DUF899 domain-containing protein
Amino acid sequence: MTATSTPPVVSRQEWLAAIDTLRVREKAHTREGDAIAAARRRLPMTEVDPSTPLVGAEGPVPLADVFEGRTQLFVSYHMWHDGRPAAEQCEGCTFFTGQVRELSYLHQRDVTFAVFCQGPYEESDRYRRFMGWELPWYSVPVGSRERLVAGRHFGMKACYLRDGDRVYETYWTTGRGVEPMAPSYGILDMTVYGRQETWEDCPPGRPQPYETRGQQFREDGRPTAQWARIAAGHDDCLVDGQADAGSSGCCS
């Protein structure tokens, strides 16, 4: 990538002074984020049927069991295109799901993380294995979708609380509200070229090749994260080293 413009060059003293000025705004932003989180903790909640069935690696499982004995549950609702190849699966959900790797810190705070996928379990789980994700993974049967998604859509994130045998939904968000799942965006926001997406307010001449209708998460027709797996020899047409020719799942 060749940039057509770069920031002006100044002395170190001038540079530090400019950063100090910006730091005031950054700290105000952080404090406002803390205040919003405090308000989020004071929201009411709504009850959800704890027996709502899901499908996991061992078969059907009720929502209450997904907590794995903890009191809190964070769910990433992963979009799925039934019967479509790996290259055509949701690039945005792939981007966000793939950045959640280490769960021990959440477990330390009594929070379980799980992915609730829109598609059939066997089909979507093949995708999980191809991507190398070691996350609790469940399929949401059609009959359970209204109880959990309730007029919203997959791609959202939701938080739940278990109080004894009862389960409550405490928060949900979608769109840019899910960005805390993606530290890549936070890192890019600190760089001089930012996310390089067309919506950003950048000085003239900065590189902005990525539109925001999925293109920002794709490269050469695939979700970007797939290319590293293919280069490493992970075939998206294989499951456990065996060709799965009879499946209409993730094979490309």
